[in-house]
Amino acid sequence: MKLYDLTLSGNCYKVRLFAALAGIPLEIVPVDFLAGEHKRPPLIELNPWGEIPILVDGEVVLRDSQAILVYLARRYADEAWLPGDPAAMAEVVQWLSTAANEVQNGPGAARLVDKFGYDLDKADTLRRAARILPLIDARLADRDWLALDRPTIADCAVLPYVALAPEGGVALDDFPHIRAWIARVKALPGFVPMPGV
């Protein structure tokens, strides 16, 4: 099973982190992002959107980090990571949506501006971060994990761009519950870091 990967991508890191925590072996294939390798064959044939990560597992080819997390959790991991019970599954999936929307477009996008020079509306990214981070911090005020009473793929999906928020000029000083949650994730058996986390 191959993961086409960029070390500095939080979306790629979500997949690497979950695979490490769940003991799922991945062959990491580095992509020369700056040279546009993801926009040329053979990668553009695997993902016409021209984005990474891309997971290839036999005949299964997936794009989008959230979709990849769901696939790996259901195919290779213990059900605790993504339960089959509809209510518990929905509890996890709503956080996957938060990761792909509010977190990606808030602290994640602020990081794209500051660290990589993307031409985005920085003020808008900061407004979005200022809305979502207090909500996440409040959620974690009386619980250890985002979705259930244990780590799930929800934590893997949300963690990267929240933990990397300072790289976009978004401080975590006022969010003690988020900082404690990041420390709990880092203490999990199998945890792997990425630059900035």
Which short descriptors sum up this protein?
197 residues, alpha+beta, Glutaredoxin, Glutathione S-transferase Yfyf (Class Pi), Chain A, domain 2, 4-stranded mixed beta sheet, 7 helices, 8% strand
CATH architecture of the largest domain: Up-down Bundle
CATH class of the largest domain: Mainly Alpha
Q: N- to C-terminal separation?
A: 25 Å
CATH topology of the largest domain: Glutathione S-transferase Yfyf (Class Pi), Chain A, domain 2
Q: Largest beta sheet, briefly? A: 4 strands, mixed
Question: Reading side by side through the largest sheet, how are the strands ordered?
Answer: 2-1-3-4
**Overall pLDDT metric:** 97
Rg: 16 Å
What structural class do you assign from the helix and strand content? alpha+beta
Number of helices: 7
- The helix/strand order is EHEHEEHHHHH
What is the number of E strands? 4
Q: Any idea what the shape is? A: globular
> What is the helical fraction, as a range of percent?
40-55%
List the helices and strands and how they pair.
Blueprint: E1 2-5, H1 10-22, E2 27-30, H2 43-46, E3 54-57, E4 60-63, H3 65-76, H4 86-116, H5 122-139, H6 153-163, H7 176-186
Parallel strand pairs: 1-2
Antiparallel strand pairs: 1-3, 3-4
Helix pairs in contact: 1-3, 1-6, 4-5, 4-6, 6-7
